[in-house]
Amino acid sequence: MSAAELVGMSGSMPESVGSSDGAADDLILVQDFSFYYGAFRALENLNLTVRDREVTALIGPSGCGKSTFLRAINRMNDTIRGVRYEGDIRVAGQSIYQADTDVADLRQRVGMVFQRPNPFPQSIFDNVAYGPRVLGLAGDKADVSERTRLALSQVGLWEELGDRLDRPALALSPGQQQRLCIARTLATEPRIILMDEPCSALDPVATLAIEGLMRRLAERYCIVVVTHNMQQAARVSDRTGFFWLGRLVEFGPTNDIFTLPQEKLTEDYITGRRG
Amino acid sequence: MSAAQRDPSVTGRPEAPLLRGQEGYSDNVTGRKRQARRWELLFIVSTLVGIVALGSLLYNVLDSAYGLVAIDVKVDPASLARGGVALEALPASELATLLREKLKKRDLKTIEKEQPLAARSTEDLLGIVQTKVVGVDVVGTWVLSGSLLRRRAIEAELARTHPNATLTFKSWLRPAFLSSQQSPDPMRSGVRSAILGSLWTILVTIVVALPLGVAAAVYLEEYAAKDRRLTQVIQTNINNLAGVPSIIYGMLGLTIFVRLLEPLTSGAWLTGATSATANGRTILSAGLTLALLVLPLQIINSQEAIRAVPGSLRQASYGLGATRWQTIWAHVLPSALPGVLTGTILSVSRAIGETAPLVVVGASTAIFQDPSGPFSKFTVLPIQIYQWTSRPQAEFRSIAAAAILVLLAMLLSLNAAAVFLRNRTQVRH
Ligand SMILES: Nc1ncnc2c1ncn2[C@@H]1O[C@H](COP(=O)(O)OP(=O)(O)OP(=O)(O)O)[C@@H](O)[C@H]1O
Ligand SMILES: [Mg+2]
Question: At what angle do helices A174-186 and A204-217 cross, to 10 degrees?
Fold first, then answer.
């Protein structure tokens, strides 16, 4: 079975999946998941579920394994040698660590935005059009243009740059570059978008723009975002998970985590007593 | 402030003197400066040695490539004018007739055997008339430095030994030198066939080594597991092959391309020549041998270029769901292209100056025709230079110097092309 079927039961665009009751909206299911770089255990026995059409924030001190976990969801860790995992991650009910899982297909359905904006050294248009072209999503030239326009409009770049799409992407401001990277991911029609500290290289204004974008995207996508910024997690996320030394210490609705954390560790971290 | 109040973790002398000459001031600068000065001097001297070495090389070549030439004639050329037209202005047909009239049968035969008179250019014919009929004889040549500094003495001496000789300043590197065929007469000889031979050989080398080298580099960098023992063994071997003496490649080329693959490299499969007439000592064999020679360099250079492509680019592409090949084709190769091209031109620069392996593969010594394709017999510039420098006459040393200048010009233009290509294809990251 391909990841297309396992993630996109609804076809290409994310449509409503079943009823609105909890279980049906659980899109990512992590079961007893551990991850090793060689002999070093970076993730230890994780258990959590991530819901569709929500923003899930992951917080925790540096080196606690947030990025590792994010990369485990679209198997970007596969590109690192000598890694090993235990347990399972299921996306839309299907294990993504099967022998016959098509990683390229999985990564299309589970898109990723990186910490540092990394547009291709090409034009704005080519950056966004690359996905539809290589994935074979687009039919003709007009279709590619239309998909590019749609993706750029979603991140608000069409209004800003619609008439200058042939300019080099690297000439944009960092904030614009990051939104371009998000548009590039959207153009491949993912269902889940993983964001690894997407605002850490940006100024406050650009950060607010991306946060607003995340909220809007959450109406149609499942978003998992890693952040070091407590206010950001509180502002944008529906649920928050707190990582500590490779373990998931606490996971729940953002409001609960920030107002009445169950664990002392969590409280110390979000109040800045430990970091 | 009393000592008791100080933070004990902060150490150092509390009242360290600030200025030279103050009490307790310790001079820790002069020694370091002296040392720095000594190193700087060493670097300057090294650079100077390099410049001097390069300068004397150029001087040596230029000194032989230009200079005075004393020419004596047996027959006054004016007496050979026909119908009021000077010898130099006669058409080819007239020159051929002149040769048939004036030359001995035997001489005529040898010349016709080399190339029939009817097929020769006007310039060529004029040259023959001048050496054989007019009897142009070089009675003396002088290097550039001597020509400039001792002109008087040379003139005086010449007036004594050859009163009829004319003394002219000659640039051995001249348009006719580039466009004429090789000839036993140094005054008429040119490097045309050697230049063409070099270009053809290099073309074969590039066509073979570039794709092979890039493909191997892509495999080693993007596909092969770097921590596998086999990969490491292969990598080490490639690195070592880059340092193998070129003559060894010549022997390899002789065994494989000239002997074993003779039916292929001689072009017999195309022309239908029998195995008796087939000859594997062709441009193709030479180009393939040089391709083998530069392949390790090409692979290493391409690997460097591919390694320099930022990982974030690959991550971005993989993250979108592109396959490995799509990522390589759309992002890795275009970004690596400038480096790959620079590497190619560097390896070609090496190949173009190689002599030893081609001597082994069997460059021909007497080539009087342009190479017509990969299956022609060949000579190349370095071989030509080598042959000329080993002749006893001074004129041959001068045309060898001129040929060296041609080779240097080719190398320079290759390097200029490398810089140009790199700037044109450069992408910013
Ligand atoms: N490629 C790798 N090889 C070996 N160890 C790694 C590798 N990447 C990460 N690690 C280790 O795994 C642990 C988790 O790293 P990870 O990058 O997931 O942390 P993080 O929570 O994202 O940190 P940060 O907030 O600084 O980005 C760290 O101890 C790190 O040193
Ligand atoms: Mg991280």
Answer: 20
CATH code, domain carrying A206: 3.40.50.300
Q: What is the mean pLDDT of chain B?
A: 86
Query: A200: pLDDT confidence band, cut at 50, 70 and 90?
Result: confident
How many CB atoms sit inside 10 A of residue B79's CB?
8
Q: CA-nearest residue of chain A to B311?
A: A118
Q: Is residue A60 part of a domain?
A: yes
The answer, for A185 touching chain B at a CB cutoff of 8 Å, is yes
Task: Report the residue of B232, B315, B318, B320 to disrupt the A interface, i.e. the one with the largest count of A CBs within 10 Å.
Answer: B320
* Closest chain A CA to residue B310: A118
Pocket test for ligand 1, best of A33, A34, A35, A40 (most atoms within 8 A of CB): A40
**Confidence category of residue A20, pLDDT binned at 50, 70, 90:** very low
Q: Is residue A275 part of a domain?
A: no
Starting from the CA of residue A228, give the closest ligand.
Answer: 1
Distance, in Å, from the CA atom of A221 to the CA atom of B123, rounded to the nearest integer, reads 81
pTM (predicted TM-score): 0.81
Q: How many structural domains are present in chain A?
A: 1
pLDDT digits (tens, 9 = 90+) for B404-417: 999 999 999 988 98
Which residues are CB-contacts of B311 (< 8 A; sequence separation ≥ 6)?
Answer: none
Give the model's confidence band at B38: pLDDT under 50 very low, under 70 low, under 90 confident, else very high: very high
pLDDT 10s digits, B122-165: 877 887 887 778 877 788 888 888 888 888 888 888 888 888 78
The structural domains of chain B, ordered by start, are 67-170 (no CATH), 192-428 (1.10.3720.10)
In this structure, of B2-11, B311-320, B322-331, the range with the lowest mean pLDDT score is B2-11
Rounded distance, CA A203 to CA B293, Å?
Answer: 54
pLDDT in the model for residue B59: 94
Average pLDDT over residues B259-269: 81
Q: How far is CA A149 from each of CA A12, A84, A216, B367, rounded to the nearest angstrom?
A: 17, 40, 17, 65
Neighboring chain B residues of A185 at a CB cutoff of 8 Å = 319-320
CA max distance for chain A: 57
DSSP at B118: G
**To the nearest 5 percent, what fractions of chain A are helix, strand and coil?**
40, 25, 35
What DSSP state is assigned to residue B219?
I
Helix or strand holding residue B344 (H, E):
helix B333-352
Torsion of CA A51, A55, A56, A58, to 10 degrees: 160
- Give the separation between CA B308 and CA A130, rounded to whole angstroms: 22
Chain B residues inside the 8 Å CB shell of A79? 314-315, 318
Amino acid found at A133: R
Quickly state the pLDDT bin for B263 (edges 50, 70, 90): confident
Strands, DSSP E only, in chain A? Answer: 26-37, 40-51, 55-59, 83-91, 94-95, 110-113, 192-196, 222-226, 239-244, 247-253
**How far, in Å, from the CA of A63 to the mean position of ligand 2?**
7
Which of A79, A121, A184 has its CB closest to that of B320? A184
Of B316, B321, B322, the CB nearest to A114: B316
The enclosing H or E element of B140 equals: strand B137-141
C-beta atoms of A134 and B335 within 8 A: no
Range of the domain at A50: 3-270
Pick the range with the lowest mean pLDDT from A69-73, A106-110, A188-192, B352-356: B352-356
CA dist B326 and B332 (Å) reads 9
Q: How far apart are CA A47 and CA A242, in angstroms?
A: 12
Note whether residue A46 is domain-resident: yes
